[in-house]
Amino acid sequence: MEVGGELDEDDEGWNNLDVNQHVNNVKYVEWILEGAPSSIKKSHGLSRVDMEFRKECNSDSILKCLSKMYENYISKSHNSANGNNNGSVEVEHSLRLDNGQEVARGRTLWNPKHA
């Protein structure tokens, strides 16, 4: 999935820039959540987000969001000592510029939704 694009002052996305004209950190989180598999978003609820910001990008940056899913993730907070799988899914995310440089990386944890 490619995210990003040019912004101008009339564009509602202009508010996504900080005073230095760099993309606001909240936007990075939104982009990685957009990059999570839709099947996971339908069946699981977001439990945790960890982010590591590595490089700034600005309004004319073109980014790619890469995601890798780890099914059958056993959460340490849900009795994993005895090997029980609680159905959680962990997803690793990487936001990269079109030249391949990593702008941010993230990790999300998704727990099953219970009916």
From TrEMBL:
Domain Acyl-ACP thioesterase-like C-terminal: from-to ranges: 14-111
Source domain of life: Eukaryota
InterPro entries reported for this sequence: Acyl-ACP_TE_C, FATA/B, HotDog_dom_sf
Pfam families reported in the protein's UniProt record: Acyl-ACP_TE_C (PF20791)
Name of this chain's protein: Acyl-ACP thioesterase-like C-terminal domain-containing protein
